[in-house]
Automatic annotation (TrEMBL):
It comes from Streptomyces cinerochromogenes. InterPro entries: HAD-like_sf (IPR036412), HAD_sf (IPR023214), TPP-like (IPR024197). Keywords: Hydrolase. SUPFAM superfamilies: HAD-like (SSF56784). This is HAD family hydrolase. GO terms for molecular function: hydrolase activity. The keyword Hydrolase applies. The keyword Hydrolase applies.
Amino acid sequence: MPVLVASDLDRTLIYSAAALALTMPDARAPRLLCVEVHESRPLSYMTETAAGLLTDLGDAAVFVPTTTRTRKQYQRINLPGPPPAYAICANGGHLLVDGVTDADWHASVLARLADECAPLEEVREHLLRSADPVWVRKHRVAEDLFAYLVVERELLPEDWVKELAVWAENRGWTVSLQGRKIYAVPKPLTKSAAVREVARRTGAELTLAAGDSLLDADLLLAADRGWRPGHGELADTGWTAPEISALPERGVLAGERILREFLRAVRQPT
């Protein structure tokens, strides 16, 4: 039976320059491979060692990139290894099969959102009304599924995100602060639901997962084994659960460690 490996991307396997956390002396820093270019500039990296590990993983398991990114944002990433047959974008809103959206899956997600939570427009209007232009740089809607803000973290009031989370909770939405982005995402829109569908289609009996943010918690809980790095929302709050390993590594070296753990578990599934 195939092993399914579902992993978050940003700040889990791939890292922006600001998130690399290269704390070692310059001469001992790992060699980096650029895996994403945006507007003709390098944007995301992994270590060359991690690139080799991911290539091996793609040969040994069903590797499923599992991201909150939109399809367009995901498709500019050029990961090493064989092209994934499945990918999950928009936090589970889109299931890509050989790069193409599965229309039936997307329709089922839209029906669930309509039944179970407040509409996107209500949340978007609240964000526009309550977020201060002093610290908001961009308002964005992703795939007509959820909303996020790009903010100046040093100017962001400490209690604003907590107040937003309480407001959103009462409407069936969740809030996540990741770097300079504040996400408002419907609770029924989950990575775990899409991963379960891929497991059903592939016949996988073992699912492994990794992620760093609040939006990855359901993914980790749905897996048979999971890993989180030593940075991010989950690490900051001390979040853990049975079968979840909290790794000490931070930054790009955490991505390398996660891939080593995936490969070890795939090769020794017991």
